[in-house]
Amino acid sequence: MDKKTIIGLVVIGILILLLPYYQKLLREDKPVESVEQTASQEEVTGEETVTPPGSDVQQETPAEKEESLAAAPKTELAFDTSLAPVDSVDETKVTVVTNLYRAEFSNIGGDITSFKLLEYSKADGEIVDLVSPYAEHTLEFQLETESSRFSTKNVPFTYEGDTMIVLENPDEAGEIVFSTVMPNGLQVLRKYQFKADSYIIDHNVTAAFTDSTYIKNSTLWWNGGLYPTEQDVNQELRYFKFCDYLGGEFNREGFKKGKEISIQKDGLTDWAATANKYFSVILSGGALKYDGVKATGEWHTETIGDKEYDIPEIEVGLVSKREGVQVSQDYIIYIGPQDFFRLKDIGYEFHKVVDFGWQILAPLASGLLWVFVKIHKVIPNYGLVIIIFSLLIKVILYPLTRKQLKSMSDMKKLQPQMNQLREEYKNDPQKLNAQMMKLYKEHGVNPLGGCLPLVLQMPIFFALFRVFYNTIELRAQPFLFWITDLSQKDPYYILPIIMCVTMFIQQKISVQDPKQKMMAYIMPVFFFLIFRNMPSGLVLYWTTFNVLSVIHQYLMDLGGKEEVLSLKQNE
Known about the structure:
The chain has twelve helices and 19 strands. Helix 5 (382-396) packs across helix 12 (536-570). Strands 5, 6, 7, 9, 10, 11, 12, 13, 14, 15, 16, 17, 18 and 19 form a 14-stranded antiparallel beta sheet that branches. Strands 4-3-2-1-8 form a five-stranded mixed beta sheet, with no helix packed on it.
């Protein structure tokens, strides 16, 4: 390996070390318009006001997507003005079981109290529940009049229907309807619809006052944020974010530890989301756009295992400014994994919630993930998929790698003449460089030829870093023996050590200049420090590529020796 290649490796290593700090800089809180959220939820009877004629609410266009429930038939929710106010009721829990989740709904507030994803478990073996344990009210509906704000928080609803709904057939659908009349005359109907094979819930909220009080605006909130699901809690907490798709632009932002936030944005809004590393809750109108988003964030100290952590609670709200004596809002709510291809099939740009890092590398990262998923359908072990992928990359880069190895071999042959020039012009650097370039030109050697394959690998490396770190497909995927999760670091550092051994062998074969031989010892140690905490899947890829490069280099050196021997015999 020539000196310029080694310098290139050092620079790349430094860039890799600085990458987390650069990403942190990019993800600092952006300046946002802050508004103070009123903590208290007053429930008072609104004063009689001028009553404009009510306006019909535009129904969303059905999304012809398998995952979307927008195509589910909507039933008109009419109010019965003779109903008496619901002062208090016993809590009724309604359980909905589909092929993907087990959810519990409560008639207190008419919202969700548990949402367990049947296909995903935490490190302790428990099923992932996307309702945080400190979330008292998960889906709160608020509305405002000229003088007051009203909320479904802690409001008793009545429910008539089965308390267990099981959906197994892909075409099977179910629904829950909660209704209430508050003492202040506010009537609310909440309807939820589900399908067996979708994480989408179709939700309609209709509200009106018995005295025709005029309603100014309303907001649907996901309260409580999300809760950590991964073994490395500190590492996961960096991925807790608020996301929105507003005015045709996607935005992702977090907030600093200990800092509370209160955000309000106005404009045509497709959706708002709260997200952690692998899971998201997305509030949307589907094809129907809303009028803004809100987000609040505060910190809680929670004990997870035997340690205490500061957990961010990021709540999001979808705002509607449609006015009238009656409001009827249609939402689609996605509660599930950040499955890039599932979200892309749903539409509405939901897939943007998956964090692929730098925007310029996002298409490459999604393309690599697509390749991984396709290969995995044939070979059901992502460790083997990574090895096969490394082989494919090696084959693709073979022409360049061959030129690299040939350039390195030619450089070896020129070492005696180069050393002679260094000795001859040791006091004249400019003359030395001129003579070196002349020597390279005479023998057709490109001193930078060894760097090109490595430079081309860097975008792949950074894209793979995001794929292994952020995609649900690689989460908790085992390889063999001690590697039980390719998205996490090797717990015993065995793979990083193997990687460094292969790098040492590769350098010992290629480095001939005595002045550079020390690099054969320094570089492996340097790369071990870089890779030791990286996802084991990424280390497996780099190690496999190293092994293939050593074999390739050995075969080329062997072929070169046989060629020299043949020429000597012919002489």
